[in-house]
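How a chain folds remains the central question behind the approach discussed here. The record that follows shows the chain in one-letter code together with its fold in token form:
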Amino acid sequence: MGSRGGFTLGMCLIVAASPLDWLIVVLQVCLGLGAVIFVHELGHFAVAKMCGVKCDKFFIGFDIGGYKISHKWGETEYGIGILPLGGYVKMMGQDDNPGNIAEQVRESEAGDADTVATKEITGPDGEKFVVDARSYLAKSVPQRMAIISAGVIMNIIFAFLFATVAFRLGVPYVPCIVSQTAPGSPAWQAGIRSGDEVVRLGEIENPSFLQLQQGVTLGDLENGIPFTIKRADTGEVEEVLLRPNQDKGLARVGIVSSSSLRISREMPVIEGTPAANASPTFQSGDEVLRVQGQPVTNQRELSAALVKLSHETLEFVVRRGGKPPKGNRFGPLTGGEEVTITVPPKPMQRLGLVMEMGRIVAVQRGTAAAEKGIQAGDFIDKISSTDETTEDESAEGTNPFDDPVLLPEQLRQLAEENRDLRLTVQRSAHGGNGRQSTEEIILPLRKVDWLESSLSANDPLSVSALGIAYRVLSRVARVEPGSPAAKANLQSGDVITQATVVLPKSVKEKPGKPLEFNDKDQQNWPAFIEQLQFLPLGTQIKLTYQRGEETLEATVEPAASEEYFVATRGMLFEPTKRLRIASTFSEQVELGYQETMNSLSMVFRFLQKLGSQVPLTALGGPVTIAQAAGHSAFEGVGKLLLFLTMLSANLAVINFLPIPLLDGGHMIFLTWEGLRGRPANEKFVIALHTVGFVFIISLMLFVFTLDIRRLLGMG
């Protein structure tokens, strides 16, 4: 009704997807938004006609300046307006502004009382008016409430229908199989590892990864969220309570979704990596079958091979040209040919800086470290091997375990030899800042066949062989002789404050923002080292650092290590996906109902926590909706219909908020009129309407700004 559909569509709470081909996006947006707007306005129109209200116009889009495609049947003009941001139904005597009561009355007044049915109504000041019986104002309060609420009800009904049909066609989804966990995160501390699967999240059985993200984002941060985990190594099911972390952005538990063994169709390999220079090359759609002659059936097994054989040249056998079963493009591939691809190892890129180790920030439950009482806040003062034949001091007089960045790989190698480790730990009472008692602990090392790496800027560094995670500070402990850092004259005690990536001239990509380092809120040295491994050859790093009171700069070019290697080699894989399809009509209806209820409750929870647990920057405008629609359309009709379910639920809930100008605001005014026996005071209504109008326009400008920032890569 009126412009309400247009306003609310611009603030639907959608999570942005990656930019896709614009032509396809526009087509899908037209289809998706057109359907959702149509059913919303159809609800208003149908109930208005049933109540005997004269409807002059039924439009999808707004006919700004008279630009439209329309045709008149009977008394109603049906059309499509040039501005596709909503729709409206124009009724006799109805206006989106309840403050225009006088104008509405004049429009509704009966011309010739002898030829037109009339009805007497009461104005805000008690004055009586005779109006056309077919005007909106002539209808009773319950009838007008039915007309106003019909759009929302239709959106809910069609959300259910969209979802029900979607599950009949089949909906692709990403299952909650774990690829990695973020070091130090709640999932990491619980010992969740690669290959484990979340089979229940709260009350949701077999959730999708999207449902997991939503459940964590909107979950109970204080009391935690119950997870049911199926362990990949034992098959056992375990109940785990995870309390999400929330720093500056959305809450998270640190779980990353799994990838399949199929090479990505959009970008098969990372340029400049061993996979990009492999012979023959990887191609889109290839499926990894064997590594060094050993079969691999999932990413967990592939990761184990990559970790253990990181220093070797590997032979990958892939299936090329395989076909999925009919009706399930995510099913197992058959046919095609087998191709052997040789991939050299990927040496670790290093600067020659050995940074100071910070405090332990997390310890995994059930590990030897936890059993020995190591906890967050403790500090590792010294590390050595318990093997007396091992030289703990190198020729230069340094401890071989003093580099916190190399330590995870060093201890993984020692674990393969079944060695123990001697730690000198300085205890910090209750995780405080002051180092207190010192204790020597001997710990067994566990064998590591999974990947753990920094997944966001401020993740700590994890030592999988011990099950601990610690900070790496930005202060230089020592500089390796002959290294790029030594040649640039960096020294022990220098504090790195900023790193800027200088790409070679042959690379057309724009460099990212400089990375800031400090030991408070930018403890992101591990993430920087992770990024360093996948930069193009010839890239230089401009370091800004403090030496005493001086601020200095140095430019260094990373050098390849001869001793340490990166497990991943540059192949990119398609995400693991499954097809959720109902086998019976009753299951189809049940899944449709669950999806509709979940979509409605998600919007309520989102709004409840918006501005506190959910940042305002999570809102999205028309461009965000366009991106999400296009992304869903590429996934198939079932996925698009599920997107429309969510969009309809958004529109239903937001439109019914008690804000003047929206349907919910009209319901408040009608409720007051029903209790009082006449409309609310015109000046009071106008004041509230103005406040509501300013709020909605401000919100629209805000989400448009967010959209533009995302397009420019600023958000």
User: Anything to note?
Assistant: Confidence is low (pLDDT under 50) at residues 1-20, 389-395.
